[in-house]
Amino acid sequence: MLVPFEQLSDQSKVWIYATQAPFTRDQIDCITHELKAFTANWQAHGADLKASFEIKYNHFIVIGVDEEHHAPSGCSIDKSVQVIKNIESKLNIDLMNRMVVYVLEGDSVQIIKSKDIPAAIERGSLHTDSQVFDNTITGMVKYRTHWISSAQSTWLNRYFTLV
């Protein structure tokens, strides 16, 4: 059952998918259509899941399911991944590349490929106070409070000791 994203409880699980190029208006419309249909009917073992999604910064799709209402099963999670893969195929985009760092600079999102992190630090375009998106977060509380954090408080911190 589709609910407004802000109505998902703190016990919700989230999945964050990102694209390097910002979504176009047509892509947002398509994603919204696909995910509304999916979350409205998402079930685990015949039980409706209280679910939602949001598109943030024109780069991110966040899907949430309220485990306080009913927990998703392995099969239902697989179905959500399949929906994301279908969106990728339909729009010719990559939403599952985890080898990219997304940095918030003002209102825009900058992209740094993982292999370029040391060089970005040396140039000064990535520093300990850079605001980065931690797309590895899977819990709603952390998503609401720590999705955007300083680079030094994420897994990126190890790179600052290397340069």
Residue share in β-strands: 25-35%
Helix tally equals: 5
CATH topology of the largest domain: GMP Synthetase, Chain A, domain 3
Calculate Rg over CA atoms: 17 Å
Distance between the termini: 49 Å
- Average of per-residue pLDDT values: 95
Number of domains: 2
List keywords for this structure.
single chain, 163 residues, alpha+beta, GMP Synthetase, Chain A, domain 3, four-stranded antiparallel beta sheet, three-stranded antiparallel beta sheet, 5 helices, 33% helix, globular, ABC transporter ATPase
Overall description:
This protein is an alpha+beta fold. 33% of the residues lie in helices and 26% in strands. The chain has five helices and nine strands, in the order E-H-E-E-E-E-H-E-E-H-E-H-E-H. The strands form three sheets. Strands 7-6-8-9 form a four-stranded antiparallel sheet. Strands 1-5-4 form a three-stranded antiparallel sheet, sandwiched between helices. A two-stranded antiparallel ribbon has the order 2-3. A hairpin with a 2-residue loop joins strand 2 and strand 3. Helix 1 packs antiparallel against helix 2. It is globular and about 55 Å long.
